[in-house]
Amino acid sequence: MLDYVKTVLKKVSISREMFEKELHKAFRFLSAEEIGQLRRWCYAPFRGKLLPVLDRVFSGALS
User: Fold this and answer.
1) What percent of the chain has pLDDT above 70?
2) CA-CA distance, 31 to 11, in Å (whole number)?
3) What sign does the CA torsion over 23, 27, 29, 34 have?
4) Predicted structure pTM score
5) What whole-number distance in Å separates Cα of residue 60 and Cα of residue 56?
6) 12-18 average pLDDT score
7) On the CB side of 9, how many CA atoms lie within 13 Å of its CA?
8) How far apart are alpha carbons 9 and 23 in whole angstroms?
9) Is the pLDDT of residue 63 over 60?
10) 53: enclosing H helix or E strand
């Protein structure tokens, strides 16, 4: 499932809104360990363009 989520996120990364929506959806399907892996993966390719989205979504997921 993690690989599928990564594929979807790559495809929707051109739209901040879609990226954020799909990232939130992914949390419903992934385990805590997979969410950690997803977090590390997301920050590598999307840090520059989507940093505010990543920070917002992942900070909310940890609380």
Assistant:
1) 95
2) 22
3) positive
4) 0.89
5) 6
6) 96
7) 24
8) 7
9) no
10) helix 32-62
Tokens of 34: 């997979």
The closest of 10, 1, 16 to 41, measured between CA atoms, is: 10
Q: Which pLDDT belongs to residue 62?
A: 58
Residue written as token pair 């799909």: 22
Q: Which residues, 6 or more positions from 44, have their beta carbon under 8 angstroms from its beta carbon? A: none
Predicted confidence at residue 47, as pLDDT, reads 92
Residue located via tokens 């609380």: 63
Instruction: Give me the number of domains the chain comprises.
Output: 1
For 16, the 3-state DSSP assignment is: helix
Contact 15, 4 (CB under 8 A): no
For residue 50, give its domain range.
2-62
For residue 45 the two structure tokens come to 């390719």
